[in-house]
Amino acid sequence: MSDPETVSESEVERVTVKPTPFWKGDAKLWFIQLEAQFNLGKITSDTTKYHYVVSAIDTSVLQQIADFVTNPPAVNQYEGIKQRLISTFSDSQERQLRKLLSEIDLGDKKPSQLLNEMKRLGDSAVSDELLKTLWLQRLPTHVQSVLATSSDPIQNLAQMADKIVEIQHMFSVCTVATPTEDMSAAILQLAKEVAALKAAYNTEIKPRRSRSRPQTPDRSSKDSYHKPLVYAFTQKSDKATPRQARHLDYTSQFTTVINHISGKSNVVADTLSRISEIDTPTPIDYQTLRESQDVDYELQTLLAQPDSTALKLKLFTVPGSEKQIYCDDSNRRIRPFIPKTSRYELFKHFHGMAHPGIKANIKLLTDRFVWPGINKDVSRRTRACINCQRSKVQRHTQPPITEIGTSDERFAVINIDLIGPLPPSNGFTYCLTCIDRYTSWTEAIPLTDITAESVAKALYSGWISRFGTPLKIITDQGRQFESSLFASLSTLMGFRRARCTPYHPATNGKIERWHRTLKTAIKAHASPNWTEHLPTVLLGLRTVIRDDTPVSASEMVYGSTIRLPGEFFQDSWDNSKQISQMSVQRQLHIMTTGRYLYPKISTPAPTFLSEETQNEKLI
């Protein structure tokens, strides 16, 4: 261990440096004080100064300069954190000028203190003449009148202002106003109110939590028509049970004077003790119910034909009155028969308490009342409750999804959509796809972009110019199809646009399913230049036999199959003519009935000829 005397002087002096906590209000003054401590401690290392600053600031300040502290620069760390803290917590020059012009005032400060604060805010941006004018404006009037004629420096004027203000405070005299008649009356009234409050406080009952008898119990009189309660406080304590003695002891802490009054004089307490005698209102007016039963057609029919119903309707006397109404007792419970005129009011009363569901409403009412079709009636009224529909989202009536019917005409209804982005090929990255709902004829038009203008041009040049204007076009809710340009195109061309349900691609399922077939066929070519193989893919897909009808899309459009590249044989003239006529008949039958006609060919199998010998006779 080294000798303490051998420790260097700088190391000893560094230990004595203890910076004060960081001042958010004035960062510049804090650094001036800190640098003075560094000079006294002979600390010159930039890294040491930086660590002293970091150790002196709290966590809230560190969070605001966390980016600097976590990644400090390699050099000039102290200057960097100094400038960062000053710029973060010091007011801008505009803010300081605003304080100098409008926010600062004399208050309890001395004039010299006010001047120093204004100098600090003005810094070097405000001249001495302007600073003097602003400072004089904030001084009292009598001080301004003395200093206005002086041409001394502003610091000397500040000292003079301090002496003037100090002398003014020494000789200030406070006068006492003579009370007027109104003031005397107000004081007298306040004295009366204080006396009344004091008297009310002294007579107020103050319950205590302790069961022991207080030394000075508050005694107040209570009225009761229970005469034995009065006697309980006057009898000997040994006659009471332990529980009675405990209760009487607790009651005596609040009052021991109980006056007996008769029940006739104590109307409120007597009424509450006989609550069963109070005539509470009911949702059913039995007198009105009896009159409605006499004229109700359904009840009279059931009474005339008792065998037509399982209800056992009899007259029962209403408890507490002499009125008789028809009730059913078939399930060992008396249920009044409710005529048609009173059913809605009764339902509204019971349903309006908690707005239960249909099953709970039916159970609630069928257990207490009866009328023909009560289950159906309660169910219908519960569904029609406006408050239930507003509050119970799951009870809202949801309309069914509209179905798109089948088309019976070529190119009358088409589905269109967009696919992409695809791998770039000759500048094209998207495709506009179209399919006819009747013939399933498909088109795929390459696009460089999918703006509304590009889509409208491709639809017109790739489909409308070849097959005419359709009656209806089914699309999703893409921005291209929702644009005003597409709406103008539909108005100009004369077709109607149908929107698909959002997030429900099955609505546009015919084109969506064909997208998978198209992408699979393009991908099978294993070439990035998909635009070069797209015509070949479309030719193949148009000649493929469909699953729903044993014909291809080309047969549905042209009435016969189209010749594919690589075919070396064709049908003989006679058979091809016969088959062509049958194809025309088949196509006409499909167009008129919408169903495929399966022909029965009674001729022999067709004979195929080569192109070189098609005009020669076979031997």
TrEMBL record:
Residues in Integrase catalytic domain copies: 395-573
Domain of life assignment: Eukaryota
Pfam families reported for this sequence: DUF7041, Integrase_H2C2, rve
Signal sequence bounds: none
UniProt-listed PROSITE patterns: INTEGRASE (PS50994)
Region (Disordered): 205-224
Protein name: Integrase catalytic domain-containing protein
Organism: Tribolium castaneum (Red flour beetle)
